[in-house]
Design a protein that fits this description.
Shape: globular
Oligomer: single chain
Structural class: mainly alpha
Helix content: 55-70%
Distance between the termini: 67 Å
Number of helices: 9
Largest sheet: none
Order of helices and strands: HHHHHHHHH
């Protein structure tokens, strides 16, 4: 009779470096950098007046990150995002192991929806231009010609905003779905890659703006 290695599912402690889970060239890396360095979140900060008294609040940037990451993974309910923050190492790393409850996530999307929506729409635009959104590639025979004109910025005035409008509609639909479901219930090489990715994100963010 064949002998196989024993399957052991007993508890164990595994060392995980959370900062190493956010790798350059990924959606979560771009999301993390955009929210921290490119987006103006002052309107969200202004809602908190607990400088001297009251309990510490969840950083709205952290909640924004996990909500957008959840949307990118098809998670459009607060309970699903809460569970991911407990079980998925990427969500744990992105949130700094903050693990906000589903009630807090639902309140964030419900009460700050308009302000968050404006920020959320900027992220898919940049990630789309960086090629980090899932898509299919279709090609036909042709010839490449040198040019300094960007295809993204070429076309009639009516065609130019079409891509942004399409992404905004998708963003609004996801936020609406989320609300509806809630209501229904360091090495050198790595550093070099990070620097290159950050420069690329900055360039695309400026182009988007």
């Amino acid at each position: 009779m064949a002998r196989h290695k024993e399957i052991d599912r007993s508890p164990r402690f595994l060392p995980v470096v959370l900062s190493a889970q956010i790798q350059p060239g990924t959606f979560e890396f771009t999301l993390d950098w955009l929210v921290d360095s490119e987006l103006d979140c002052s309107a969200l900060d202004a809602r908190f007046v607990n400088d001297a008294t009251g309990a510490p609040a969840y950083d709205p940037r952290v909640v924004l990150k996990i909500v957008v990451l959840g949307y990118s993974r098809g998670l459009v309910s607060s309970r699903a995002i809460e569970r991911a923050c407990r079980e998925n190492v990427t969500f744990i790393a992105l949130s700094g192991d903050a693990a906000p409850s589903y009630a807090h996530i639902a309140k964030f999307v419900r009460e700050l929806g308009d302000e968050v929506g404006a920020l959320f729409k900027q992220v898919p635009r940049v990630c789309d231009r960086l090629g980090l959104n899932d898509k299919e590639l279709f090609a036909i025979d042709g010839v490449k010609l040198p040019s300094n004109a960007s295809e993204e910025r070429s076309g009639t005035r009516a065609e130019l905003p079409h891509r942004a409008e399409r992404l905004e509609k998708a963003a609004n639909k996801i936020i609406e779905t989320h609300r509806a479901r809630d209501e229904g219930k360091g090495n050198d090489d790595r550093d070099a890659k990070r620097c290159a990715q950050v420069k690329r994100i900055r360039r695309e963010a400026r182009a988007t703006r």
